[in-house]
């Protein structure tokens, strides 16, 4: 399967003018994954014992060791894809989506098999899903500032970290007000964040409203870039 996925990306790079790849947030494994026979044999080879769900649940150290092995496996998989793409697009850039708890609480690696520090080392950019509405955060702006401050503890965080805010509330099935979105973006920038993104975007509905969102997203506000 890994070879097929790599070949698919190679074909994409060979036949399309792509500038890079974003590995989306579905590149994760939960704490209850994976009990495929190959995963079970890999676990035994690495730790010298049979994989037992009860053992993982009772022993945090054992669970974290298993999570780190899964994290490493996912990273290596994406590196294989990156190598395939670079055959045809040597200048391509690569980014990885991470869930916010991976940054705020490193122990969340057990739940996602994702690691912020390792991702900074392996990818050109790391995209943090700064989604306070999805996470049901009661004080969104405080939480967003905490995200940025957590990132500051790591080398190259400013150069490589993209803070992606949500433009749509999937829990309530409605678009987030442009004023709220802009306030979140400005708080991230004021705290020291450098790279900003938002998701989703619907140009047919003009959501978010381009005239408003460009105040923070357009490089036209920086004359020295023109």
Give a description of the structure.
It is a single chain. The protein is α/β, with parallel strands linked by helices and 226 residues long. The N and C termini lie far apart (45 Å). The relative contact order is 0.11. The model has no long low-confidence stretch (mean pLDDT 91). The protein is built from eleven helices and seven strands.
Short description:
With 226 residues, the protein is of the alpha/beta class. The chain has helices spanning 2-15, 37-47, 53-58, 60-86, 100-104, 109-112, 116-122, 140-151, 157-160, 178-191, 210-217, and strands at 20-23, 93-99, 125-130, 161-166, 168-169, 174-175, 195-199.
SSE layout and pairings?
Elements: H1 2-15, E1 20-23, H2 37-47, H3 53-58, H4 60-86, E2 93-99, H5 100-104, H6 109-112, H7 116-122, E3 125-130, H8 140-151, H9 157-160, E4 161-166, E5 168-169, E6 174-175, H10 178-191, E7 195-199, H11 210-217
Parallel strand pairs: 1-2, 2-3, 3-4, 4-7
Antiparallel strand pairs: 5-6
Helix pairs in contact: 1-4, 8-10, 10-11
